[in-house]
Design a protein that fits this description.
Layout (H helix, E strand, L loop, with lengths): L16 H8 L7 H13 L3 H21 L5 E5 L9 H8 L4 E6 L2 H10 L7 E5 L5 H6 L1 H4 L9 E5 L11 H11 L5 E7 L5 H10 L12 H6 L4 E3 L5 E2 L7 H9 L7 E8 L1
Parallel strand pairs: 1-2, 1-4, 2-3, 4-5
Antiparallel strand pairs: 5-8, 6-8, 7-8
Helix pairs in contact: 1-2, 2-9, 3-4
């Protein structure tokens, strides 16, 4: 996309968190305003691209665990962001091509790119428009229900998305409403930014997002833990990204990045 003309209804002059994240990951689906905002974040938090990659690695490990160990065969990925290598359906289908995935986002650019990528996977994968602030509407969406059976366990993925909700949005209540709508045996996968370490830098980085289409709310460990109310956190609990069930593939990179601050906490919970 880079500096091509934006789709109708998109103001390329306003930074967008999904496109900024894409830039952090080395992608090209972003505009000049997104790159400039991302660079401002990196001035105070040069670790941002590494943390974005670590966040994606956590997502991949969580999906592999849920398919291989927990028997989950359907995923609802809310706030999916722009498609990138190692998307949920790609990781899951390596182990079971029958796994069903619904991607949900409220960004027209994300929706367009995701639908183009998934054009050949309609039997198991869909992309639908939805907003986490209206969870019941997401789960009632007919296209989502064409691949997701809410009578069976499902994994709800809220990876790097809840921090774009303000406290006024009552995120703990929104997550609880999702939990109440899914079957026993379902799981929650969540990662969230925090100012637990180097709080001043974290807050300066978050301040850049105030000029973007969505601001960031930094939350404490205790506040992030509350998002798992009604879920039992599986081992190792609520931890920094690299500490959630590290595998051999990322061990050396993990050791090399030990100096990075804990600006993300993550976990996987099992519905009680």
């Amino acid at each position: 996309m880079a500096d091509d003309a934006p789709p109708p209804g998109i103001d390329a002059r306003v930074p967008n968190p999904a496109r900024m994240y894409n830039y952090f990951l080395g992608g090209k689906d972003n505009f000049a305003a997104d790159r400039e905002a991302a660079e401002r974040v990196m001035q105070v938090a040069p670790e941002a691209p590494a943390l974005a990659r670590r966040n994606r690695a956590f997502l991949r490990r969580a999906v592999r665990h849920l398919v291989a160990e927990a028997g989950i065969r359907q995923f609802v990925d809310i706030g999916t962001g722009l498609p990138t290598e190692g998307s949920v359906h790609e990781v899951a289908h390596e182990m079971d091509p029958g796994v069903r995935v619904a991607y949900v986002d409220n960004d027209p650019v994300v929706l367009a790119h995701s639908r183009a990528l998934l054009s050949g996977t309609a039997a198991t994968t869909v992309t639908v428009q939805g907003d986490l602030r209206r969870p019941e509407e997401i789960l009632a969406e007919p296209e989502l229900r064409s691949v997701i059976d809410l009578a069976e366990p499902v994994a709800i993925l809220l990876v790097a998305v809840v921090h774009f909700l303000s406290d006024d949005d009552k995120p703990t209540e929104l997550v609880a409403r999702l939990r109440e709508s899914v079957a026993p045996g379902s799981h929650l996968v969540l990662s969230h930014v925090t100012d637990e370490e180097r709080a001043g830098d974290a807050r300066e980085g978050a301040a850049v997002y105030r000029q973007a289409s969505s601001g960031i709310t930094l939350r404490s460990r205790e506040q992030i833990h509350e998002l798992f109310d009604g879920f039992q956190l599986i081992e190792p609990g609520l931890v920094p990204l690299d500490d959630w069930r590290p595998d051999d593939e990322n061990l050396l990179a993990r050791q090399a990045r030990r100096h990075l601050p804990t600006w993300f906490l993550c976990g996987v919970g099992h519905a009680l």
